[in-house]
């Protein structure tokens, strides 16, 4: 009986240590901020204050645990190359619009009002360089549609 108790105690201790370490790693992810703009077909500009998700750690953390996003804010994921992208909403309590953008600034797809806390895969549908996440439904409210283009080059932090 004491062997089972020791094994159980060790397992609980290991799980506790893992959860503390995982929490510390997630808490340490910082994002620099900047601005980006889309130009509509009519020539109007739609601007956003964004956090830059440039590293694999930043992209993995994304907007997890964020309860809501204010208007005209978001997170831009730069994948560093053009490729197929899949994302999900695990640990993300607020619905988001995911705007997938190719290397020329063309909007490839807008996944509107994604399901909070879902582990369902959201695909770019074709190779992209960037994904912008904003508050769910905000793209339609602003009139942001595939005819708009991301203004490049981006002023990314060094």
From TrEMBL:
Pfam families (UniProt xref): DUF192
Coiled coil (residue ranges): none
InterPro entries: DUF192, Saro_0823-like_sf
Signal sequence annotation: none
Protein name stated in the entry: DUF192 domain-containing protein
Species name: Rhizobium rosettiformans
